[in-house]
Design a protein that fits this description.
seven-stranded mixed β-sheet; alpha/beta; about 25% strand; single chain; about 250 residues; four-stranded mixed β-sheet; about 40% helix; 6 helices; elongated
Length: about 250
């Protein structure tokens, strides 16, 4: 074997080794990223999850509003990426405790009984005005002593929460997407889909509650979302009996 042939063989071998090492490194990084995502969502391979949504008012069959369908699609993609499975249930048919299956609950407490129960049990520092009569505070959020009013199509708020009751490694989280309007539910799910890696790095697998503001949804839909604050402590702290909102957040 002359020098030229030997150099060619060595080059091919080196290229093969380099390609193999590159493939192994990419596979390792992909698997590590997947495991982190699965841990954040509580969705190991072949896990079962629950999607809880409002039941439409058109009849006894399960029907879902358009923006809630879009929200479910956002969540379904995340679940599929984790190699897990999802079951869709209307809010008045979901009867299970916490921690057995990862739950994604979509919709405000006025139309979602399951959401109302979660807010009452898990977030005692949150109040949502569900009055049917028109008023400036209709649909407003109160988080601690702060009030956040809604201006439909212009300035709307949503709560995005990841909550765990049991801190054991096998406990599954509950994700809440509680918006003041239908489009803000979708905005909250889209925010989670786009930012779950950053949220996982910041919060790990701990509970958190974020207040989001959806800006000018009549022009931008659910895409322009601002993080107002991490309100975990205020949302999880019981409100005093006579607590009144200190401020009303409303653009002029």
């Amino acid at each position: 074997m002359n020098d030229d042939v030997r150099n060619i063989v060595l080059g091919v071998v080196a290229a093969g080794i380099s390609a193999t090492l590159g493939w192994l490194a990419r596979t390792y990084l992909w698997k590590r990223r997947l495991r982190r995502k699965q841990a954040f969502f509580g969705l190991p391979d072949n896990a079962e999850s629950l999607l809880v949504v409002n039941r439409g008012a058109g009849g006894p069959e399960l029907s879902v509003m358009r923006y809630d369908v879009f929200a479910l699609l956002e969540l379904a993609a995340l679940i599929k990426d984790c190699n897990a499975h999802a079951q869709i249930l209307p809010h008045d048919a979901a009867r299970q405790g916490f921690g057995e299956r990862t739950e994604f609950c979509v919709g405000g407490p006025a139309s979602n009984r399951r959401m109302a129960a979660h807010l009452s049990s898990l977030l005692p520092g949150v109040r949502v005005n569900v009055d049917a009569e028109p008023s400036p505070d209709r649909g407003a959020f109160q988080v601690g002593t702060e009030r956040y009013r809604v201006q439909p199509g212009k300035e709307e708020y949503a709560l995005l929460a990841r909550l765990t009751v049991d801190q054991s490694p096998n406990a599954r989280p509950v994700f809440l997407f509680c918006g003041q309007t239908a489009i803000t539910n979708q905005a909250a799910t889209r925010y989670l889909a786009r930012n779950h890696e950053r949220l996982a790095r910041k919060h790990g697998n701990s509970s958190f509650v974020l207040l989001l503001k959806v800006v000018n949804s009549q022009a931008y839909g659910p895409d322009v979302v601002e993080l107002v604050a991490d309100v975990t402590r205020a949302a999880q702290t019981e409100l005093p009996a006579a607590a009144t909102p200190r401020n009303s957040h409303r653009s002029s």
